C-alpha cells in the first residue's frame, strides 16, 4: 500500500510539474509570438502610413512643378511657337513624374490594403480632368486663337480647379494616414491589454494548478508520513507494536516506571517446519488478537519483538502482581488455543520472564533483564513464569556471558589471549615421555590474566569456540616448539561439526611439519553428538601423524560401543571420578574398570585433577598411565615451558 502511494505521489508530482512547465513554456511562447506579431504588424502599418504621407507630400510638391510649368506655357503663348513647345515638354515631363509619384502612392496603398484604407479615385479623376483641360487648350495657344493671358486663364480655370481638388485630396490623404497611425497605436494598446489579460488568466490558471498540486502532494506526503510512522512503530504482520513502539511506550512511562513481561512461544518452530510459514503467520495473528484483548483489559501494551517473541508493558505496576497475573492468563490462553494441521492438533506453550522498571532504569536494561529471565524459564525444570532478580546466580551468569559475548570478537581480532601449558606426567616407568596440554587465558584491558572459566561458557553459548580453537592452533604452530615434546590441543564440539574447517586444518598441519607433535582432545559429549564428523577428523588427522584423546570420559554418554570406532589413543578419565578414588572401594572399582577396558582396547589412560602425590601413587598402582593436575604441575605460560630445561629449573626427564 505504501509502495503504491509512493509511486502515485511520484507520478503526480512528475506529471504536475511537467504540466506546469508546459503551461509556462506555452505562455512564454504565446506571449512572445503575439508581441512579435503585434509589433511587426504595427511597425509595418506605421511605416506604410509614413511612406504614404511622404509620398503624398512629394506628390504635392510635384503638382507645384506642374503648375509652374503650366504658367510657363501661358507665358510662352505670347511668343514663338518653339517656346510653347519647350514649355509643353517641361510640363509633360513634370506631369509624367507626378503620375509616377501617384503610382507609387497607389502601390503603397495596395501593398497595405488590409491595414490602410485610403481611396485615390478622386486624385485620379482630378489629374485626368486637369490634363484634359490643359491639352484641349494647347492647340489654341499654338494657333494664337486666344487674344490675351486673361482669356487663357479663364479657359484654364476648370483645369486649375481640378488641381486645387487634387491638392485638397492629397491633404485628405495625409490626414487619413495620420488618423490611421493614431488608430494603429490605439489598436496596439488594445491588443497589448488583451495579451496582458490572457497572460494574467494563464498565470492564474498556473497558480491554481500549482496550489492544487501542492495540496495534493502535501496530503499524500502526510499520508505516507503517517503510514511510515505507523510502520516504524508497528509490526507489519500482527499490527502490534514492534521494538521501537515498545520503547516509545516505555518512554512515555519513564517517570512512574512499570513492569515488563517477555514472552517466548514454545514449539512454535515446529509449527513453521511442519505446516509452513504461512500457517505459522496465521497462528500468530490469531494468538496476538486474543492476547491483545486480554492486555487491553489490563491497560497493558503488547509488542512483537521477535519471530515468536512478545513483550507486554504495564505502566505504573510497582509490585509485579498485576503483570504476574496477566502472564498467567496469557500462558493459559496460549496453551488452550486450538490449532490443528491435517487433523493433528499442535499444542503450544510459552515461557515468560518478568522484570520491574523503576525510575532511572533504561528501557534497554529492563528488556535485557526480562529477556534473561525468559531464557532461564525455558530451561527444563524451570517455572514458566520467572522474575528477574539481581542475586539469582543463573541470571547473573547469563548476563555475564552476554557481556563476554560482546567483548570476545574484539579480543579475538586483537589476539588478546595467552597460551598456558600444563604437563601431563607419566605415572608408569615404562611409558614414553609425557606431554603438555595447551590451555587458554584471556588478557583484560589492564593486562591482567582472565581465567578461561570466565569467557569459555560465553564462547560456547554464542558459537565463538571455532574462532578460539583456530587462534590456539595457529598460535601454537607458530611457536618454537620443543622437538621431543607432544602438545595436546582441545577441539570444541562446534569445531568438530564444521566439516569445511577440516581441509584447512590439514593444510595448516602439513605446512607446519609438526603434525607428529600435536594431539587433539575431544570431549565425550562432543564426539557422541557428531560421531560421523568426529570419525572423519580423527581418521584424516591421524593420517598426518596426530593423536587423539577422548576427554572427560565417564561424565557424559559413556557409550563404550563408540570407542573402537573412534580410534582414539588416550582416555582422559573425568576429574569427578578421579577425586573420589580414595573415598570408597566402589569408586576406585569404577576407575579400575575403565582402566582395564582401556588396556583391553590398547588405549592409554590419563587421570585428570590429580591434586596430591598420594592420589598420584594410588592411581599409578591402579595401572593409569598418566596423571594431570595441580598435584603434579601447575599451569604456567607456554613461553616458560618452551625454554630449555636448565633455564626452567625443572627436571629434564619430566
Number of helices: 23
Beta strand count:
17
Low-confidence stretches: 646-654
Strand content: 5-15%
Radius of gyration: 59 Å
Strand order across the largest sheet:
8-9-11-12-13-14-15-16
Class by SSE composition: alpha/beta
Structure description:
This protein is of the alpha/beta class. Helices cover 62% and strands 13% of the residues. It has helices at residues 2-76, 81-111, 121-143, 149-155, 157-233, 243-252, 268-275, 277-297, 321-336, 363-378, 393-414, 452-461, 465-477, 493-496, 501-512, 524-529, 531-542, 561-566, 575-578, 585-601, 613-621, 638-641, 645-648; strands at 258-266, 301-304, 309-315, 340-341, 344-345, 349-357, 385-387, 417-426, 435-443, 449-450, 486-491, 518-523, 547-553, 570-573, 604-607, 626-627, 636-637. The strands form 3 sheets. The protein has an 8-stranded mixed β-barrel with strand order 8-9-11-12-13-14-15-16, surrounded by 4 helices. Strands 2-3-1-6-7 form a 5-stranded mixed β-sheet, sandwiched between helices. It has a two-stranded antiparallel sheet with strand order 4-5. The longest helix is centred in the first third of the chain and has 77 residues, at 157-233.
Question: Can you give me a brief rundown of this structure?
Answer:
This protein has 654 residues and is an alpha/beta fold.
Tags for this model:
disordered C terminus; single chain; 5-stranded mixed beta sheet
Amino acid at each position: 500500500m505504501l509502495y503504491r502511494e509512493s509511486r502515485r505521489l511520484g507520478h503526480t508530482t512528475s506529471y504536475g510539474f511537467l504540466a506546469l512547465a508546459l503551461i509556462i513554456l506555452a505562455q512564454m511562447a504565446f506571449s512572445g509570438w503575439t508581441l512579435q506579431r503585434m509589433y511587426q504588424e504595427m511597425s509595418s502599418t506605421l511605416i506604410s502610413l509614413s511612406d504614404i504621407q511622404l509620398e503624398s507630400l512629394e506628390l504635392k510638391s510635384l503638382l507645384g512643378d506642374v503648375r509652374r510649368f503650366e504658367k510657363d506655357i501661358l507665358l510662352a503663348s505670347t511668343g514663338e511657337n518653339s517656346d510653347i513647345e519647350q514649355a509643353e515638354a517641361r510640363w509633360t515631363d513634370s506631369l509624367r513624374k507626378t503620375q509616377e509619384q501617384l503610382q507609387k502612392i497607389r502601390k503603397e496603398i495596395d501593398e497595405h490594403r488590409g491595414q490602410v484604407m485610403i481611396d485615390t479615385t478622386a486624385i485620379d479623376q482630378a489629374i485626368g480632368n486637369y490634363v484634359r483641360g490643359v491639352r484641349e487648350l494647347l492647340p489654341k495657344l499654338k494657333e494664337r486663337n486666344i487674344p490675351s493671358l486673361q482669356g487663357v486663364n479663364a479657359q484654364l480655370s476648370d483645369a486649375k480647379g481640378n488641381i486645387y481638388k487634387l491638392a485638397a485630396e492629397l491633404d485628405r490623404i495625409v490626414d487619413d494616414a495620420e488618423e490611421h497611425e493614431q488608430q494603429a497605436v490605439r489598436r496596439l494598446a488594445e491588443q497589448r491589454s488583451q495579451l496582458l489579460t490572457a497572460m494574467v488568466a494563464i498565470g492564474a490558471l498556473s497558480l491554481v494548478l500549482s496550489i492544487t498540486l501542492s495540496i495534493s502532494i502535501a496530503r499524500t506526503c502526510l499520508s505516507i508520513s503517517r503510514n511510515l510512522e505507523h510502520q516504524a512503530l508497528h509490526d507489519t504482520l500482527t499490527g502490534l507494536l514492534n521494538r521501537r513502539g515498545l520503547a516509545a511506550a516505555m518512554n512515555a512511562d519513564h517517570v512512574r516506571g512499570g513492569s515488563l513481561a517477555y514472552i517466548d512461544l514454545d514449539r512454535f518452530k515446529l509449527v513453521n517446519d511442519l505446516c509452513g510459514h504461512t500457517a505459522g503467520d496465521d497462528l500468530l495473528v490469531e494468538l496476538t488478537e486474543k492476547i491483545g484483548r486480554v492486555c487491553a483489559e489490563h491497560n497493558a501494551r503488547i509488542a512483537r519483538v521477535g519471530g515468536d517473541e512478545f513483550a507486554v508493558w504495564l505502566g505504573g505496576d510497582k509490585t509485579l502482581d498485576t503483570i504476574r497475573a496477566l502472564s498467567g492468563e496469557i500462558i493459559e490462553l496460549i496453551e488452550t488455543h486450538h490449532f490443528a494441521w491435517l487433523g493433528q492438533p499442535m499444542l503450544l506453550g510459552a515461557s515468560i520472564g518478568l522484570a520491574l522498571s523503576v525510575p532511572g532504569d533504561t528501557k534497554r536494561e529492563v528488556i535485557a533483564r526480562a529477556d534473561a529471565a525468559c531464557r532461564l524459564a525455558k530451561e527444563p525444570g524451570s517455572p514458566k513464569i520467572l522474575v528477574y532478580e539481581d542475586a539469582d546466580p543463573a541470571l547473573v551468569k547469563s548476563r555475564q556471558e552476554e557481556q563476554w559475548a560482546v567483548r570476545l570478537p574484539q579480543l579475538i581480532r586483537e589476539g588478546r589471549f595467552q597460551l598456558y601449558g600444563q604437563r601431563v606426567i607419566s605415572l608408569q616407568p615404562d611409558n614414553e615421555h609425557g606431554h603438555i596440554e595447551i590451555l587458554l587465558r584471556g588478557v583484560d584491558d589492564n593486562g591482567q590474566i582472565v581465567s578461561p572459566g570466565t569467557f569459555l561458557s560465553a564462547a560456547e553459548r554464542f558459537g565463538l569456540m571455532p574462532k578460539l580453537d583456530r587462534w590456539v592452533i595457529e598460535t601454537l604452530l607458530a611457536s618454537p616448539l620443543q622437538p621431543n615434546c607432544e602438545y595436546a590441543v582441545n577441539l570444541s564440539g562446534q569445531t568438530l561439526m564444521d566439516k569445511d574447517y577440516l581441509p584447512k586444518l590439514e593444510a595448516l598441519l602439513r605446512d607446519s611439519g609438526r603434525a607428529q607433535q600435536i594431539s587433539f582432545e575431544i570431549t565425550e559429549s562432543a564426539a557422541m553428538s557428531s560421531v560421523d564428523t568426529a570419525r572423519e577428523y580423527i581418521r584424516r588427522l591421524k593420517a598426518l601423524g596426530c593423536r587423539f584423546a577422548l576427554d572427560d570420559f565417564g561424565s557424559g554418554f559413556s557409550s563404550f560401543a563408540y570407542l573402537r570406532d573412534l580410534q582414539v589413543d588416550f582416555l582422559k578419565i573425568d576429574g569427578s571420578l578421579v577425586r573420589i578414588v580414595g573415598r570408597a572401594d566402589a569408586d576406585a572399582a569404577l576407575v579400575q574398570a575403565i582402566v582395564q577396558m582401556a588396556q583391553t582396547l590398547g588405549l592409554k589412560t590419563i587421570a585428570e585433577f590429580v591434586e596430591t602425590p598420594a592420589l598420584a601413587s594410588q592411581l599409578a598402582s591402579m595401572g593409569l598411565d598418566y596423571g594431570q593436575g595441580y598435584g603434579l604441575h601447575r599451569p604456567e605460560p607456554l613461553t616458560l615451558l618452551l625454554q630449555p630445561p636448565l633455564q626452567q629449573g625443572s627436571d629434564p626427564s619430566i
